[in-house]
């Protein structure tokens, strides 16, 4: 009986290890495919600076791009990073996008004074896809000055991140992208959903996302607000699941 129990336990352990490896490979695959077009756009911007003989801008942009690339590569090997590192990567990304769009993009990042960004842990590049989506699908087609805000608030259960833009809204964006970028948009949404599904395994409280379509006083679309809620027990929960 003891031998049989030992054999069953060994089999369960192997199955658990295989499942963990499968989840890691899925996460690695999703991370590697999340933002390839950003890198393509960044290289195009550097190329355009070189063509117009703006060498100082090209060097500055390349330095920031290199720093962000190093951060992404380093973070891709980690399950959790500090909120401070996540915010640093966001600033680098948004500074690059601001230069790419010739200062048309205006952004602000607000951090709750009660938060401790150095000690709060979250999965790497968790906020960035929603920020990128706000620029690409919300602001890119807007004729108004582009405004983007990211607020990090401390909650009873952990952290709440609000990403808000004054773009054209999801409905109009969906219509514009129906043919030209249907495949890419579908992949991005599925990739985000799949990533959260994997991350939430083993957590006491799930990482959740709420998307709100903003309207002005006349009922017209006035942008999008994404609220990301991250529990404060990720270190314990992920340790148990991994």
Written description of the protein model:
- The protein is of the alpha+beta class and 242 residues long.
- The protein is built from 8 helices and 7 strands.
- The strands form 2 sheets. A 5-stranded mixed beta sheet has the order 2-4-5-7-6, with helices on one face.
- Strand 6 and strand 7 form a beta hairpin.
Structural shape: globular
- Please provide the count of β strands: 7
Query: Uncertain segments of ≥5 residues (pLDDT<50)?
Result: 236-242
Separate helix tally: 8
Beta-strand level of the residues, as a percent range?
Answer: 15-25%
SSE string, helices as H and strands as E: HHHEHEEHEEHHEEH
Helix content: 40-55%
Strand order, biggest sheet? 2-4-5-7-6
What's the story with the biggest beta sheet?
5 strands, mixed
How many angstroms does the end-to-end distance come to? Answer: 29 Å
Mean of pLDDT = 82
From the structure above, extract its key features:
single chain; 242 residues; alpha+beta; 5-stranded mixed β-sheet; two-stranded antiparallel ribbon; 19% strand; disordered C terminus
What is this structure's SSE topology?
Blueprint: H1 2-34, H2 36-51, H3 55-75, E1 81-82, H4 83-100, E2 105-111, E3 121-122, H5 128-139, E4 146-154, E5 158-165, H6 170-176, H7 182-199, E6 208-215, E7 221-231, H8 234-241
Parallel strand pairs: 2-4
Antiparallel strand pairs: 1-3, 4-5, 5-7, 6-7
What's a concise summary of this model?
By secondary structure, the protein is of the alpha+beta class. It is built from 8 helices and 7 strands.
């Amino acid at each position: 009986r003891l031998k049989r129990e030992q054999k069953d336990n060994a089999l369960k352990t192997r199955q658990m290890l295989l499942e963990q490896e499968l989840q890691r490979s899925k996460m690695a695959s999703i991370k590697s495919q999340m933002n390839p077009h950003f890198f393509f756009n960044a290289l195009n911007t550097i190329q355009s600076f070189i063509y117009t003989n703006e060498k100082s801008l090209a060097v500055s942009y390349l330095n920031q791009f290199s720093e962000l690339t190093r951060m992404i590569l380093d973070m891709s090997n980690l399950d959790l990073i500090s909120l401070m590192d996540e915010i640093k990567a966001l600033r680098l990304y948004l500074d690059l996008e601001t230069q790419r769009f010739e200062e048309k993009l205006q952004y602000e990042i607000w951090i709750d004074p009660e938060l401790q960004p150095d000690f709060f842990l979250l999965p790497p590049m968790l906020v960035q896809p929603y920020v990128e989506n706000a620029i690409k699908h919300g602001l890119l087609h807007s004729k108004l000055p582009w405004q983007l805000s990211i607020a990090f608030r401390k909650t009873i259960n952990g952290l709440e991140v609000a990403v808000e833009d004054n773009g054209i809204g999801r409905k109009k964006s969906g219509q514009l992208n129906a043919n030209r970028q249907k495949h890419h948009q579908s992949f991005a949404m599925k990739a985000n959903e799949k990533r959260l599904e994997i991350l939430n395994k083993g957590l006491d409280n799930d990482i959740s996302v709420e998307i709100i379509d903003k309207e002005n006083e006349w009922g017209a679309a006035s942008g999008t607000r994404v609220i990301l809620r991250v529990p404060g027990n990720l270190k314990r929960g992920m340790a148990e699941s991994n």
